[in-house]
Amino acid sequence: MENARIERAKASPTCRCGGKTVYFRAYNGESLCSKCFNDSIFEKTKKAISKYDMLHYGDRVGVAVSGGKDSTSLLYVLSEITKGHGTKLYALTVDEGIDGYREEAVKNAERLAKKLSIPMLVSSYKELFGFTLDEALQERSEKAIKTSSCAVCGPLRRRSIDRTAEKLGVNVVATAHNLDDVLQTFYINLYSGDLERIKWLDPSFKSGAANEEFKLRRIKPMIEIYEQELAFFAYLNNLTFQSESCPYMNEGIRTEIRLHLNELERKHPGIKYSTLKTALGIASSVVLDPDRSKKIMRCESCGAVSTGPICSVCQTLKVVS
Ligand code: SF4
Ligand code: ZN
How many CA atoms within 13 Å lie on the side-chain side of 126? Predict the structure, then answer.
């Protein structure tokens, strides 16, 4: 509370353009009016796209849209900044089957896609795997298996998006992972000693069996934007999004890391940004076994491209079905 008062005291009532300040960016001391704040989000996205060579002329981009603030903002920003660039956008939405939660988010995503004239395809776990996430997690609890909800859900979500991407013939999948998401993932992998997954955080890392096979690039255009700025961007642009969190989200270590990083940022504005730089530096310097990173492996169970003998989806299916 005390800190928040000090922050407000540091903000200037006017933006550098003379407009009324609506946002104080504590990590660099900028006071921004709504137009300059909005422009900065577009600019940060464009900068990341160009810095990491994310998009090329003529790309068909599937934007993973869950209906939350981040993905809703991503769809909106990409629709604006790709105008006239020969890029075709599609909205890819996954209905995991979370009763009382996902329905509203899917409706919001559909509304926005329609407004922006972006074709949208919704896939569901029920139709792809034969069960909803609720049913899968119930099964997990009955078997007293300790795998976290997100560890069950994540691989299924990626497979759903890949299938939809293939169906639509898109060659790029854009996800709305923001600076906070990437940092949290870095710490999760750091604590579990998973160097390969740390390598995957490197935006310039273009290898990976799935990428080779389907020519599918995965990009995170909002990697350098703070989560709280995306929330403010969505609010400022009247984007309707699902504000409730997933009922399963607090089970993993991610929440503990999120709270810890938020506390550090509150005391030391900018620490998340500098840690991101360190994290990406470490990711880019990780060298994977060249044989392993080049070889295309197939899952022995389902035949999908995989980084091991059994893909993560089949491993998950064993746990929950
Ligand atoms: Fe799935 Fe976890 Fe996201 Fe919920 S929070 S939708 S369980 S990945
Ligand atoms: Zn498999």
Answer: 8
**What pTM, to 2 d.p., does this model score?**
0.91
Pocket residue to mutate for ligand 1, from 150, 185, 258, most atoms within 8 A of Cβ: 150
Q: What pLDDT sits at residue 226?
A: 98
Do 77 and 42 meet the contact criterion of CB atoms below 8 Å apart? yes
191 CB neighbour count, 10 Å cutoff: 10
Q: pLDDT value at position 144?
A: 74
Q: How far is CA 181 from CA 59, 177, 205, 236, in A?
A: 25, 6, 18, 22
Give, using CA atoms, the residue closest to atom 8 of ligand 1: 150
pLDDT at 1: 44
246 lines ligand 1 (CB under 6 A): yes
- Catalogue all structural domains in the chain, each as residue range(s) with its CATH number: 52-290 (3.40.50.620)
Question: What residues of the chain score a pLDDT lower than 50?
Answer: 1-6, 208-211
Please report the pLDDT score of residue 206 as a whole number: 67
CA distances from 102 to 11, 62, 97 (A): 38, 20, 7
| 188 Cβ below 6 A of ligand 1 | no
